[in-house]
Amino acid sequence: MEKTNHITVNEIPSKTWSWLKMNRAAVDVPSALEPVLPKVRGICEGVSFSEKPSFKEMPDAAYTGGCGSSFDALFDGVQPVLITAASASGVSSGAENAPVVLDYRLSGGKRAAAAQDVFARENSSVTVIIVSSSDKGDGGFQALRTKLYAARNAHIHIVKVQLLGAGFVQADETAGFCEENASIEVTHIILGGAQTYLGAGANLSGYKSAFRSDAAYLCADGQVLDMNYVVLQYGKKSDCQMFVNGTLRGNGRKTYRGTIDFKNGCSGSTGNEQEETLLLSPQAVNNSIPVILCDEEDVSGEHGATIGRLGDDVLFYMQSRGIPKESAENIIARAKVQALLGKITDDVTVSAVSDFMNGLFGED
Fold it and tell me: Is residue 62 one of the residues assigned to a domain?
């Protein structure tokens, strides 16, 4: 029998509704994880990649993610690869550059740990796409950790695509830090695996620093998706925008925790988190915990959630045009993911996501 460690992940910063047992999650981790390296493509002028960077190349900082301190121990002895965007003259526009793609193709039974650091120097901009995939029926475990440092006027866009086999468990954290006028954008597409534990966030330390996250998912047929987004806003006029949009069907189970924390001194800051969940089955379970914490008077924070079934008006419209109910539900569920594909500037990745969805919806 394989030895595992039972660890706590995705603990919400401010404990609430303890009787509902949603403040944290727990995951069984294989005791022996193997460090793995990605296949890399797309390195272009102004961006460098190193499998074995020197210890001090990535700045020390109070990185903020969502998985928690227990998660860090999984990466003891794991050397992060490093992607660095060189400093540029002027101010970064945040425009999408040709992306760097890290491809983690895992075999069945793999127990993998992988880490990557992304450092955007002053005035630079970089896009990194990380794809985790395997054959359709494979199982295993993947621990994935990504640290992002956006220096003054820099922009980082990180895209994570999860297309793992039906038996895989993934625990994945994205932790960021922003200097003055820097921004981090995180895009998640989660379609595969048996269980996915996702933590993400940033420390908005600098003046006018910004964080944006967009997540799309399909959770079905016994799948578990557990999410924890945490953003700490220290800098004046900092901004946080979080958006989650997905579908639950069968007996899928999803928990979303989103925390925007306005710290003392972040006057003029804004924050917004919005969630839309489409329920296609009475057996599906949805938990949503949007939280705004505030220790500063001059801020503006909003949150909202829309959770429900497909409206009768939408169904009537589609059925009146010869589209049966099941096909209509699939079209809407697919559209939630398709809406994020426009943020992915790599045709190979877009095709992989489309092919995976074809399999999910029986369109092979």
Answer: yes
What are 270-296's pLDDT values in tens digits? 999 999 999 999 999 999 999 999 999
Which residue range(s) make up the domain with 333? Answer: 34-360
Structure tokens at 121: 């120097």
CA–CA separation, 218 vs 190, rounded Å?
7
- The answer as to whether 134 is a domain residue is yes
| Within-domain flag for 2 | no
Tell me whether residue 353 is in a domain: yes
d(CA 140, CA 340): 27
Domains held by the chain: number: 1
Length of the chain: 364
Element (H, E) at 215: strand 210-219
Question: CB pairs under 8 A, 24+ apart, for 95-99?
Answer: 95/125, 96/127, 96/157, 96/345, 97/44, 97/46, 97/47, 97/125, 97/126, 97/127, 98/42, 98/44, 98/127, 98/345, 99/42, 99/127, 99/128, 99/129, 99/159, 99/344, 99/345, 99/346
Element (H, E) at 349: helix 347-360
pLDDT digit string (tens) for 61-88?
Answer: 999 999 999 999 999 989 999 999 999 8
Dihedral pair phi/psi, residue 360, rounded to 5°: -65, -35
